[in-house]
Amino acid sequence: MAKSINICLVGQKFMGRTHSNAYMKVAKYFDLALQPVMHTLVARDQAELAEFARRWGWANTSTDWRAAFQNPEIGLIDIGTPNNVHAEMAIAALEAGKHVACEKPLANTLAGARQMRDAARKAKKSKTFVWYNYRRVPAVALAHQLVKEGRLGRIYHVRGYYLQDWAGPDVPLIWRFQKKIAGSGSHGDLNAHIIDMARFITGEEVAEVSGAIMETFVKERVIPSQGSTGGISGGAKGSAAKGRSDVDDAVLFLGRMTGGAVCSFEATRFATGYQNKNGVEVHGEKGAISFNFEDMNYLSWLDNTVPARLRGWTRVPTTGGDHPWAGAYWPPAHIIGYEHTFMNQAADMLNALGGRKPIVPLPDFEDAYQTQRILEAVSVSVRERCPVKVREVK
Amino acid sequence: MAKSINICLVGQKFMGRTHSNAYMKVAKYFDLALQPVMHTLVARDQAELAEFARRWGWANTSTDWRAAFQNPEIGLIDIGTPNNVHAEMAIAALEAGKHVACEKPLANTLAGARQMRDAARKAKKSKTFVWYNYRRVPAVALAHQLVKEGRLGRIYHVRGYYLQDWAGPDVPLIWRFQKKIAGSGSHGDLNAHIIDMARFITGEEVAEVSGAIMETFVKERVIPSQGSTGGISGGAKGSAAKGRSDVDDAVLFLGRMTGGAVCSFEATRFATGYQNKNGVEVHGEKGAISFNFEDMNYLSWLDNTVPARLRGWTRVPTTGGDHPWAGAYWPPAHIIGYEHTFMNQAADMLNALGGRKPIVPLPDFEDAYQTQRILEAVSVSVRERCPVKVREVK
Amino acid sequence: MAKSINICLVGQKFMGRTHSNAYMKVAKYFDLALQPVMHTLVARDQAELAEFARRWGWANTSTDWRAAFQNPEIGLIDIGTPNNVHAEMAIAALEAGKHVACEKPLANTLAGARQMRDAARKAKKSKTFVWYNYRRVPAVALAHQLVKEGRLGRIYHVRGYYLQDWAGPDVPLIWRFQKKIAGSGSHGDLNAHIIDMARFITGEEVAEVSGAIMETFVKERVIPSQGSTGGISGGAKGSAAKGRSDVDDAVLFLGRMTGGAVCSFEATRFATGYQNKNGVEVHGEKGAISFNFEDMNYLSWLDNTVPARLRGWTRVPTTGGDHPWAGAYWPPAHIIGYEHTFMNQAADMLNALGGRKPIVPLPDFEDAYQTQRILEAVSVSVRERCPVKVREVK
Amino acid sequence: MAKSINICLVGQKFMGRTHSNAYMKVAKYFDLALQPVMHTLVARDQAELAEFARRWGWANTSTDWRAAFQNPEIGLIDIGTPNNVHAEMAIAALEAGKHVACEKPLANTLAGARQMRDAARKAKKSKTFVWYNYRRVPAVALAHQLVKEGRLGRIYHVRGYYLQDWAGPDVPLIWRFQKKIAGSGSHGDLNAHIIDMARFITGEEVAEVSGAIMETFVKERVIPSQGSTGGISGGAKGSAAKGRSDVDDAVLFLGRMTGGAVCSFEATRFATGYQNKNGVEVHGEKGAISFNFEDMNYLSWLDNTVPARLRGWTRVPTTGGDHPWAGAYWPPAHIIGYEHTFMNQAADMLNALGGRKPIVPLPDFEDAYQTQRILEAVSVSVRERCPVKVREVK
After folding, report:
1. Domain C145-331+364-389 falls in which CATH fold?
2. Which chains touch C (3 or more CB pairs under 8 A)?
3. What is the DSSP-derived secondary structure letter of residue D362?
4. DSSP state at residue A70
5. What are the residue boundaries of the structural domains of chain B, listed by start?
6. Looking at domain C4-133, which CATH architecture does it have?
7. Cα-flanking dihedrals φ and ψ of residue B56, to 5°?
8. What's the CATH class of domain B136-331+384-388?
9. Would you call A72 exposed, middle or buried from its count of C-beta atoms within 10 A (0-12, 13-18, 19+)?
10. Which residues of D touch C294 (CB under 8 A)?
11. Of C34, D66, D108, D361, which has the most beta carbons under 10 Å away?
12. pLDDT beyond 50 at B230
């Protein structure tokens, strides 16, 4: 019988579902070095907790995360809560000697992220992971591989965008619009993803934030009625009372990568018509890649070394046995979806904990801290209205 | 506690996996009238059986389907085997008083399909279902609804295509190339799906097959080595010995629908470059729809009543709460994949068994028999080289 | 000073414009072996004639085509009239010792086309051309070259489609709906083009028409008021009196190519939403191509010899110096349009008349007669409701 | 007989061709208030001049622009030269009492542009025009109309991009890389176009440049051999001697529009794979539009007031009689190309000179000066590394 690891998950909202689903299914598709056991679910709301645990198959439940973290049976603690409690929980988990997986962004402040990074450094026996799940899209991993193989040559341009449109003036003041809980709006929610993807694909860092802009288009929103603070869609119109949205609705910035490329990033919840257009483009001397999550089963690739007569963008379906993770699922072109990115990450985490090397690098706290530094540099650039150097250009 | 039904699944290959996955997950996403219980898995290979059952969570296993079908605990028997045993199994299951779900096409001969239809008519207490899963793509169901609402007006053209390219000359002689097992090649495998989709979307029948063409491009294939007859991809090069492929690699036909539209269908495994291009287009006086499974989360819709200045094809993402089934999964634009069509069908079947009405019609044996009649008419048209009337044009 | 040739054009409607425009502009872009001189314009309507000639720069006009054809100054006679007068005019022009360019299809009957072919054979000093202008789309010529270079290998499937939607029930009974003038509807107008393109790209002939369907969706149309019989768009609502449309609105057929491929063709004026979707797809063992005129500056190309990991459809922009004709116009990606196909053909005709070899084969009467035979075979297949052999399969 | 105006064109390179072609053809398609007469062509190279004039039909030639401008027969002077001589020529032309059309950007310095603007203000009888030809793409004009009709509502985001890839390290040091001639690189060449398009479509101004980045990726280039400084493609490898490229290869900036929207612009010659991706996107509360020149015959339009069930991007073909200018050409969907934008502008200019109102606003010197101010603000922002206010935010 294969070895296994007991997991404790904190959170039962959107990310609670994606993680539960991943743990439930990952061993069906993948032959893992370590089997996941859905041991304990932790959340604040006792009533919802039982129902959620039953539905998704968690063996135990608890409303006391501190106690749960001390349970010697638990091997991996997975934090799927809002950003403001990541640091406290992750540090406690590390101090309890556990492996830790944490939702992104690492924390809601750079200081918090640094403490987490330091705690991870200290906890030498613990592995840490951050759920930058878009690295686990087969097309994104293929892009990473192509750059690593030198197929793009010198990189000129990196372009990241995460365009959503769900946050119109009618959406009430859910937690995502409250800085004290979310830390930020589109910045931590969306920019975090595309900065991580750009770093992952290019293998470079953002060296400088050269200019940035931040905007809250809708400054006041209706306060939702009790109990409806959860999902993205919010829904409940609530009372007529209004409160202030103190997070960014959109953040754009320009910068330079350590390798000399120019980069630009745009995150917004107000790009009418784009529900989830989350992508990265990289233009190099020898080739270019373009990825857009709305078309997630494909990578667009241009080989600039092909003679001009037949040169053009190739739309590569990444659903076959030659593509990362894809062979674990269905025959070629029987496409996968959003949730499979979480399964792929769960597979790689469990394999890493079992001693295997993941197919492509997994983000740990150290790695995610670098993304957090860039997020912070953007915030400083906005506040100070000037460029901010993140690290020396090579 | 919700009521439940015990399921017995026959088959552990490609369709065994899709059905198991659907039963395992459907209750996580949907609130069902009846909970599925993965009771018994039946297959011929004892060794594989245990491993498959363990992996996917089947409580019991058996290599004796006849015995399993008699088990009074079983409520629903699901047949996911090759086509040549559908009739025998389905009739036995109906005679045992069970509800029956069967993979498509209904049978590998029209006679077999008719017997199944007759058995279903006789078994008044049993419900029957056929896994024409593409009806359960949200975009396809939306297309069905639009036609039903009269938004296309008089229909002129119906175009179905299912284009694959996996069957090049290097693929060995797996069961899919053997008539005695598969019944046919691309015809039953692919045309069956697009005929069903066209019938489902338009609410019309094919009245006449006006012309047809059938071709086996690769007539001899290498006989695979023992134990590698399973997957689509086949893979194993096997010995040098060759055998005859006696199924069609491609079948195209033209016809007329009962409402007066002209229709055309193309099924092939030799459309180099199209791995799974499975689609239907319908052009009506007031509008048109176009669906392609390679882009399954979207429906293309053209409203011909919009003034020419702004008229054009609209690519509608069908991933929101206003679209069939989609609200059960993730926020809008967090796309779903191939496997979700099976979950959607499982949800509708379980709800139907629990007394609820499915969102859009579920194909039963009676319905699937009509598709089989069209498949047969095409075969006759090919053999006799003449048009074949299926039913009177309205 | 370069040598020149005097041209006499017959026709001043849609094709009169496209040809005039081509002769006016071709020498601006191309360095030609022979300069075109816009010598004489012939048409029936004296009033329109003068205005059209002035606008487009024809030096002389005439309403007497027989007299004009005898003018010894004329070197090339270009027939841009409705199909029913092609044969009479072309034969007269050949007998007058002129080179002849004729609009497609060659004639409105096979007998007429055969007489034209025979007259062309007899007139040994005359060159003939037919305006199958889509051969002169750079992407189509590139497709021809790729097949010729063996890059597709054995061909499995050929698919031609020409889908328009302008002929709804409100369009009056213009000449295009009258058999005595047009010869046929979508068949000669649209199928002729895609049959020619398929022959041109593959270098093969249609060997057999295996099945065909023809439909007139709108059987009665309003008779247009005097003087509005011209354009495609018709427009004028006219009197309430109705007349019978005796041409086909849609013609579909299936067949086999001489090299063993299966082919299918669809021509219709009732494909709601597709204004001018005119394309050809070819799937071979080693590669595939897809062309659609709605995206005419691009050729989609799939190289099946590329490893699966990076295999996919490449959208090749055909606007650079490495592509047929494209270098004569603007920098890469500064796209060209419909009218440039006529300029490209004019350039090749003038070069051919001046002794140069055209970039890719130009269709002459002999060649266009083969297309006419296929059109006729389809008509016979529809009438007799059976397959029709055009020539032996290799 | 219609009234006419004699034109004097300066320049015989890329823009000399596009303008000549426009004047030659515009009256074929459009019924104009004023007929263009191709009177005099001015350029420096006497030998090329004669050949160019003969080919394109200019009646007279001159190498002395000052003399030519004084010719009382001339009514309109069209300046198609490099940017560094725009100001001198345009001011002289205005002082000579002529109407003036000038290539974009208005000048190579803001001071020059201001002098031109002032000269235009003074020359009350002269009309001025600037060749921002992309306003004359039917899809772009339609976008302008939609915004003007209030169909987008409050605007949140404006995104302009002009991505080319022709300037790799092997391209020699043609005039486009020399600041003294070109004024700038991608900034004046490409950003000018997309800033103008954004202003035109939204009817708003850029209020603030919030951040900007400018990069010269290839700092040294081979000096081309004599006589090959012309085309974009350059071509000639030239000697081994290298010179310094002192213009920008890429310029990106972020800003705010006067109406409160956030805007971003990117111009580059190093976006490998994009030969001429020139577009604008606007997201408003009620709708969104997206235009990309690589697909120039279409406008993507999203109506956010449509219920979610059928909401999506509509790809509107803008080739019919209901679209600006398109009715002058061919039947719907018989697409037009790059050169037609110049014909459309020529038509509107000639109509404006003849007293008619153009379909959508034509840019004059006053208007183009505003674009120049923004270009300058970006340059200042790059130099000073800080935000630059262009005008007060409303």
Report:
1. Dihydrodipicolinate Reductase; domain 2 (3.30.360)
2. A, B, D
3. P
4. H
5. 136-331+384-388
6. 3-Layer(aba) Sandwich (3.40)
7. -95, -5
8. alpha beta
9. exposed
10. 317, 333, 335
11. D108
12. no
